[in-house]
Amino acid sequence: MHDDLYPALRQCIIDGDPEQAKELCQRALAAGMAPLDAINEGLVPGLNHVGEQFAQGEMFLPDLVMAGEAMKVATAILEPAMQKAGARRETLGKVVLGTVKGDIHEIGKTLVGTMLSASGFEVHDLGVDVPFETFAVKARELNADIVGVSALLTTTMTGQKNVVEALEHHGLRPRVKIIVGGAPVTRGWAEEIGADGYGEDALAAVALAKALAGK
Amino acid sequence: MQPKLEILERELIERILGEAFTLIGEPGVKVQAQAAVDLLTTAGARVEKGIAHIPEALARRALASAPREFFLHNRGGEAVVRYGGDAVQFDPGSSCVHILDPATLQHRMTQAGDLVRLVQVAEMLPQYAAQSTAVVCNDVPKEIGDLYRLFVVLLHSNKPIVTGAFAAHTVPVMIDLLAADSGGRVALRRKPRAVFDVCPSPPLNWSDFAAQNLVDLARAGVPAEVVSVPLAGAAAPVTLAGTVVQHAAECIGGIVIHQLAQPGAPVVWGGAPAIFDMRSGITAMGAVETAMLNVACAQVGKHLGLPTHGYLTGSDAKVMDAQAGMESGVAALMGALGGINMISGAGMLDSLACHSPEKLVLDAETIAMAQRVLLGIRPRGESLALAMFAQTGLRGEFLKLPETRKLFRSEQHLPSSVIDRGSLHAWEQNGAKDMFARARERVVELLAAYQRPALAAEVESELKAIVGEQARRAGMEHLPGLGA
After folding, report:
1. What are the pLDDT digits (tens) for B84-120?
2. Which of B97, B114, B206 to mutate to test the interface with A (most CBs of A within 10 A)?
3. Cβ-Cβ contacts under 8 Å for A106 (sequence gap 6 or more)
């Protein structure tokens, strides 16, 4: 009886349709589908498809964002049922994410956050204009595995270095990995400031985070 | 006539402004600087939870008190840049973090020495009416990065300067530097040499330091350029018309703060509107829609009678390839035809990240072409052709006519050695060099011919004293990039 629901769940992610995702997840629970099955057999294959299509240039950032939004709505419906059943979706790791002090651009950072949580990371988004020190304090408090620092401006990307230093100062390195991103950021810059990696786009950031988390 | 490109119908401009006036009222404009909040509140705007709701009447008063025209001056005090009307001028792009290494094609981090080279090349090219503080100097502490760039440009150029601050507290120091250069604050106010870019953050957010910059600049009488940067599809509506609305609302918000601080202070309806690339997520500076947005936003500013600015001539290409030339050429020409008073962005590659002296040289050719187009086609005598035919008839020996010798320099733009129009044979004999190779050679020639302007000894020592003090406080003993 779940045979037609899995493809529908997959499709609502591909279509980036939060309304449809909500309705289908409610229907899946009502039909007795295990929430983890809905995620792993329905939603995740949809997300993977979007990722593949994006990588091939067939889908674009708005498709990715809306798939992430649909995924967020879907997991919010399934989460309470999962807790009730004592099941847990395997967490790939904890990520503390934010845009560096002096910079209030959040599109890239939020997209990375959406894709990371859609992929199974526990994401704590600190927002924008985040003081260097706060990244370190939050990473310690939450026992984070990864800290992600975004900067869009050429004039604020130097702050990423300060975040690396703040984590070092707090003795969190090298245990806590640091990933950096943003329009002016390059692999060379990531290496220069002693970060652990740089992703070209939100999907590359997910792949990077998985690699750093050893998943 | 100066040929013109208009991209918006008059009725659409009215609709754009109508929606922009609505937006600054509701949802309103985020304003974070207390000084700006106080000015707005006193003037009758409702400010709640950091959001100003600006009434249209207040906005219209500010737009009316802003000057229609002002000039930037060179070191000699001549008014050489005109902000106003359909004057069109170009300056290099600002705040890059990389420079294209012409030998290795690596994009490496920029240092003060790179800024010096860029300033020297731009100083030698008459196509650049103004200099810009072109790069972030990575060998200078961040706290003084903005004022240090201005210092380097002041030491190496006589031209007007398009600059900007990275914080609130550095603006007074930068104004001190300009005042030292101009012979005091009164002289600076009378004959400003620099304009400061001040950017709202999209959408509709005047951050603490940006709003404070507007207030400080207005009070010092130093021109401010409101550079609204809506990113269509990401930080602004995906429709070009919607993005022009947001640009207008952001500019109006800034001009209100600025004019409330000092009515009549010089201010520019500027911007770097661009589309968001839906594949890579970059700001697509070379996209034709970005050029359309710049022309459209300037058209709205012109409709209001304000001086205008745009951000074109950059490219998203990574090296000096055909994409770089094509994108920059199309955009520069569109911007020029749009009658934008100051067009920033020349020399830039990789969206907004990388600068290149070689590209400045190539872009100078593009700009010269655009400037030639603006001169248009006009009669040069009593007859258009009859007088010349009367002399040479059907022999067709126009090359022998005195008119030809007299007029060819004004009829034709004569390109530099960067543009190759010779025969195939001549090109081969000359080493079969492509454009990049020719541009590299021209950069070497220009740098060899460059001479640092003679600053009065007391001016130079005052500049060095101001920056030296700031540098020491920031923990920097040596001042990089000063050269010989």
Report:
1. 999 999 999 998 989 999 999 999 999 999 999 999 9
2. B97
3. A99, A127, A128, A150
